[in-house]
Structure formats: structure tokens, C-alpha cells
Design brief:
The chain is mostly helical. It contains seven helices and three strands, in the order H-H-H-H-H-H-H-E-E-E. A three-stranded antiparallel sheet has the order 1-2-3, with no helix packed on it. It comes from Pisolithus microcarpus 441.
Amino acid sequence: MKLTLRPEWRLWPINSFLGLLDLKTGVTITLLFAVFNKVAGVYGLISVLAGAGGSFAQLSLYLYSSVGLVALAWGINAVKENPKHTLYFSHLFFLDHVLSTVWTLFFAVVWWVYTPHDGRRQANSPAQEAIRESANVSHPMTDAQLAAAANILWHEEKGTAVAVIVLSWFAKIYFALLLYSYATHLRKGTYNVIRNFRFHPSSPPGYLPAYTEDEDNEDFYIPSLRTHHPNSTSSNIPDFVSAPGRSGRHSARQSHSSLGKIVIPLQENGDVLFEENGR
């Protein structure tokens, strides 16, 4: 049994990236952002192996990001107008967004709830402790003053931090919709129609210039049958055959064609004269 959404619940596929760029260009930008995100995880893994330390959650995220680079390398090749592979990669991208959301919520709770924001410096590894001791930095502020200043700074910056996290989350949702829309257009065969998409502010929604251009081209190449060129030897030959071999007939024969009513008198020598009525 195949589960599908109702037609009224289905989302219309996106035709462009932010209404400015081609859909495939938007997919490429999405993949570049994803690669940049996963490469940051590789650097985190290198720092952990170098002795910087870290929790189990951080180490698992770094390992997952390293493996995700392999999936992205496959996805970059998969989106080359292959509908089946593009759909599979869209599912993987959305699954990655779900897993990344779980890690983001975990680190947000740890940072907002369990991490003290009192201004004290914390060493996460013996290397950081050695650097702090060798720097020999002294503060003229007391612990209470340092905690008060850190609390003010925290209240000023936590709103910005929340905004960045929320905007990043919705941006990744939009990127996932781009991938699904690209896969949908490839499966339906409509990508060639929207690939030369240009933004028309005065056009109604759903206007596709390609359809109009095709119809105009079809009308352009239809031959005109109503144009009469009397001086041309190769224009508009009537659709009948007259055999001038019978003598004694001097009466005019009339024939109807798509060009109008034509009177054809036959001469004695067999010549055929064409005269159009009204001319």
C-alpha cells in the first residue's frame, strides 16, 4: 500500500531560487553550504585528536560530519539531472536536517541552562590550561564585577544567538524544499521549461514564457495560403489539373480553390490563362 498526501495538501514545487536564479543554481548553492558545514566538523575532529578535548556529543557530531562529506560528494554527482538519485539525496538531506536539529537542541540546552555565564575562564583541555598560565594575564576586576559584566553581555547576545539558530533552521528547510522541487521537476520532465526562468514582475502567477514562445513559433511557421503573387512563377499553384488537348471547346471552365474563384479560358493553341475575378 502506497501512502500519498491528498492533492490539496501537496506543496507546489519551487521554480527558482529566491525568484532570482535558476533552480539548479540554487541546488548547487545549497550543496556548497552543506559542504562548508561538514568541513567544519572535520576540523573539530582534528582538534579533538590533537588533544583539545571535548564531550561525547561533540565527538559524535564531528564523526557524523566527516561521514556526511562522503554523502555530499555522492549527492553533487547525483543532482546532475538524474531524477531518481536526486530524490534519494533529498531524503538524505532532510534526514541530515533532522539529526542536526537534535544536536542543535542538545547544545542549546547545555549552553543556555547548564553553562554558567559568570565571566570565569574555563580550560577544556590541559593544553588550554597551559596557555592560560603562560599568558599570565591579570584582571583588575573582582569576581563579582566580572560576573556582572558577563551577565550583561550574555543578555545582549543571547537574542542574536537565538535569531541565528532559528534563521539557519528555516534556511535549511528551504534548501530541502529546493532539492525536492528539483527532483519533482526532473521526474515530471518540466525542468527544461523552467530552466530559463526569468522574473517577470508584471506577469500573472504561473506565467511561463516558454509556452507563449512555442505557440508563437508554431504560428510563425504555418504557411500562408491567402497571399497571391501574380508575377511569381512558383507561388500558389491551384489544386487541379487542366488538360488542354480537346479542340473545339472555347467555353470557360470555373474551378474553386482555397484562393478564391478562378476563371480559366482555354485557347486554341492549348495555353491556359489564369484570371481571378474582381481583379
